[in-house]
Amino acid sequence: MIGALRYAVPGLLLLFFAVRSFRQRVFLLGIPFLMYMGNSVFFEKAKPFWIPSRLSPSDHVMLWLVITWVVYFDLLLPSFRRSAPRPRLFGPALSSPEEIVLVGLAAFAVVEVGLTALRFSAATSALGQAKGFVYLFVGYFLLRGMLCRASREDSLDFVKALVVVNTIAAALFIVHQGLHHTIYLAVEYQTVVFMGQRLTRSFYFMPQLLTLALAYVFARRTWTVFWVGVLIVTLGALWVSYTRSLLVIAVAVFLTSLAVRLFKARQAHIAIRRAVTMLVLAAVLLGAAFVFLPVESRYLVSRIVTATSSGSLTSDPNLQNRQNKLRNVYAWIGPESHALGQGFATPAQDPPGANVPAMSADLVWVPVLYRFGLLGVLVVALLYATAGWRAARMSVSGDGDAEFLALVLLGVIVGTFLESFVSWTFLNPVRYPMGLWVFALLAAEACRRRAKRAAPAPILEEALDA
């Protein structure tokens, strides 16, 4: 039964996205997103997408993202048979300031490759170390081109589908890690014994779009039974992950949505009603967790108590460990490289750098600091700040679907920024090409807003037609 499930889930999901892509072409992106979700929906069982085996996972994701892009724009067809004779393959002009910052980061990476090549007289090795960043930025522009061509309605339908898929993954995760019925075969990340019961922790098959699911549900004006169910399952997966940072992220995403509602005229009543509903729901879920998952719930509470018992969050061992990693990297790159980092040196060229990949899983700022120095840290922080500003501005100025999509993106950006202090987020080496997906969605929405403002008024259009 479980064996059949492992093959049925990815097969059915792939079929769903393929069928929908005939009517809404943006659903072709379901393939790279399913690869992004990877183990959580058993997509590693879809072997045609992971051959040849000598390639790395990020190579496969990049390959299929390119294939999707080629099919999306009919590039293999003669020009007269294409749906758009002159498609903008990478989307319209850049949006300022957030995309200017992103392009600046890409240019910074190119400069670092050059400096590293000059420093060690080894251009090939520098390019090899920079391959992930090449995938990151190329993947962004491929995603940008496809998403800019899609309508807002199609984009929202696609995001909705991603949330539903993530909910399926969250339900499987609850059954496996919360109820201890083996579904996934991957080796557990960590095993602990608490109150005489064996608990497992793993992030390999954890739902990858929890922040998107939370942002989507919180941003909705109304909650139906279905979306309350999505929220319950998502929060359940978050709970059995035993990850305190995810609790903080969930609260931050909810408060972000609430703040925008309170700021906008005539929406304060929605925010107040939503806050009361969420408090009641949280109380019910908390009670249910202690009834049905007593040991697991007590374990998570014990971890929260450990973090707060000293009176300072900075005294938490996990946070101290991450602070020490940043201090170590700062010391390794040396005073002469504090500003620009070590670039793309190999471990052989800079031995301390061999520790960076393992450390990066706990903190995205580790590879950023090591590769780009303090200036790189500033640029990445500026990217999040400008993207958050763009999403917040569009949330406040928009209405209807435009407001909703912008609010979802704002929640994801806020949540991803917070997650960057406990995870490698956009620099996950398995998912380099998809690392900047939320920024591509934001750029597409910004392009739609800009195109709408530039469109001629209906009266003028009629005059021109006449």
* Strand coverage percent: under 5%
- Any idea what the shape is? globular
Total beta strands = 2
pLDDT below 50 for ≥5 consecutive residues: which ranges?
459-466
- What's the domain count? 1
Reported for the largest beta sheet, the result is: 2 strands, antiparallel
Which structural class best describes the helix and strand composition? mainly alpha
Helicity level, as a percent range? 55-70%
Terminus-to-terminus distance: 66 Å
The helix-strand sequence is HHHHHHHEEHHHHHHHHHHH
The radius of gyration computed from the alpha-carbon positions, rounded to a whole number of angstroms, is 23 Å
Descriptive report:
The protein is globular, with a radius of gyration of 23 Å. Helix content is 66%, strand content 2%. The N and C termini lie far apart (66 Å). The longest helix is centred in the C-terminal third of the chain and has 33 residues, at 365-397. With 466 residues, the protein is mainly α. It is built from 18 helices and two strands. It has helices at 2-21, 30-37, 57-72, 98-120, 123-129, 131-149, 152-178, 210-219, 225-240, 244-263, 268-292, 294-308, 317-333, 356-360, 365-397, 400-419, 437-454, 458-465, and strands spanning 190-194, 197-201. The chain has one domain (2-455). A two-stranded antiparallel ribbon has the order 1-2. Helix 4 (98-120) runs antiparallel to helix 15 (365-397), helix 8 packs parallel to helix 10 and helix 10 (244-263) runs antiparallel to helix 11.
